[in-house]
Amino acid sequence: MWRSIAAKSRVVARNFCAIKTPNNRNKVYPSQSHISIWVSSQSSQNLRFLSYFSTNPNENDHSHSSSDDSSMISGEHDDNQFEGLSEQTSLPFSENGDAQMETLTSGDVSADSFVGEENVESEAYEIDVEKLDNVLSLLQSIVDESLESTLDSFSLVLHEEFVVKVLETPLVLGENLIRFFKWAMKKQDLSVTTRVIDVLVSSICSRDLRRKNAYALWDLVREIGEKNEGLVSVGSLNQLIALLSKLGKGKAVLEVFDKSKDFGCVPDSETYYYTIEALCRRSFYDWAWIVCEKMLDQGPLPDSEKIGKIICWFCKGSKAKDAHKVYLLAKENNKCPPKPALYFLIGSLCRDDGTVKLALEMLNDFEGEAQKYAIKPFSSVIRGLCRIKDLDGAKQLLLKMIAEGPPPGNAVFNTIISGYCKGGDMKEAVEIMKLLESRGLKPDVYTYTVIISGYSNGGQMEEACYILSEAKKKHSKLSPVTYHALIRGYCKLEQFDRALELLAEMEKFGVQPNVDEYNKLIQSLCLKSLDWGTAEKLFAEMKEKGLYLNSITRSLITAVKELEEEGLAKEVSIEA
């Protein structure tokens, strides 16, 4: 029985204070004279301190003198020293402030009776500083294929704390850290834990941005994860995905994401975010949307700032409709993306005729102060509505802006006026211009030009001239486009004299005629009135002003002139 107690004392010493030597791994040396352990009492939550003493079997006195200390158990004693021990060993306890005596038989000592055995072992372990320095000195230098053999020569007793200390040391090449870890994995005295893997991944990702080491780290993590499900943490995968994303390796990131399920990891919001970021950086928007759909269906959403970035990435990839789905789910989860992301989403939706209505619905989410300053998204929606010819919807939105905000400016009014003019509804266009003036705004040159062009296209030259006269009153300098619209309208009606008057009038209002005005007028004179003489005068005027007339129009003048001369020659010959 006492041999059993002696054997169990060795187990206690091994678990807490034993030091293994390379030459004799089975021999145990206690590190202190008393072999002390903490156990949990079955009847109380209080912790008790137990000490094994070598006592006289005939004495039951619980007080111990200095002579007792000299006979304490030593690692050099053999089992014969325990033959004199009594069948039961008295142990002093202090429970609830009273000195009590309890007896621990050989059957009371078991592995389950120890509290925090693993933690105590970690606390009792002391790193051999000399060996640690040797390892770090080796890893911090550039080594060749002899690294593993050099490590073997150190006769290291690997412990989790020792390995973590090495991995956390700065100024160590990432390649050497990976090689050291692979070497350590092959040793039986090291148990690879999640903590060690996390430290390795964190060390590599924070100090090394080389593609070679990133792929080597991923190969190592994949090997561990495939053999030990649940050992690789999602935090390590997130750091690895972020590293590969910085290196622009979108396909590798997708591989890491797909493997997370095989590792027993449940992707979190950071996993989805970094994967989508990496794929969008490489313009793999279709793959990114597949990952995003999984996030929307299964995973938690990231914070509002990151949701805004995801929305912007999909908008840049011409997936505004998909980005709108992300926005809707974020709104359901009370996560509102930043304003710039919302503005960008609305603008992107307005570029596609099929999604303008979605952008219009989003405007209802702006309230209070946010609505008063949201002129950019409101203007984008009005442009989209006018492009799809929903002018009544654009007008209703304009009236809402006037009533609730944001206050519309000239650009918003001009967009709607231009839409009505292109549709030939000049009455509505003029009403919108009057509404603009009632708001205290002044119609600009563009406003007048658009209305003049609308009237000219419809052959309503009197109304166009009236708008021109109003423009002259309010603006000292007009646009060439304003006169060009009128000249084009008069040429259609073959009123060339009026067109020439407008051409001469342009310079009085600070507008220099350009090649378009001359070219349009010369062609109309030659083709419709066969007036090559006036056309030649305009051509000479162009030369004086340094303007160039294209060869086709010059040839047209020559052809009309020759045709007329041939006609006159025939008439003369007939009369003769």
Automatic annotation (TrEMBL):
Signal peptide positions (record): none
InterPro entries the record matches: PPR-containing_protein, PPR_rpt, TPR-like_helical_dom_sf
Highest taxon in the source lineage: Eukaryota
Sections of the chain in a coiled coil: none
Keyword Transcription regulation: no
Keyword Membrane: no
Placement of PPR repeats on the sequence: 233-267, 374-408, 409-443, 444-478, 479-513, 514-549
Pfam families: PPR (PF01535), PPR_2 (PF13041)
Chain spans, region Disordered: 58-80
Keywords annotated in UniProt: Repeat
NCBIfam families: PPR
Family of the protein in this entry: Belongs to the PPR family. P subfamily.
UniProt-listed PANTHER family: MEMBRANE-ASSOCIATED SALT-INDUCIBLE PROTEIN-LIKE (PTHR47939), PENTACOTRIPEPTIDE-REPEAT REGION OF PRORP DOMAIN-CONTAINING PROTEIN (PTHR47939:SF10)
Official protein name in the record: ATPASE EXPRESSION PROTEIN 3
UniProt organism field: Salix purpurea
Taxonomic path: Eukaryota, Viridiplantae, Streptophyta, Embryophyta, Tracheophyta
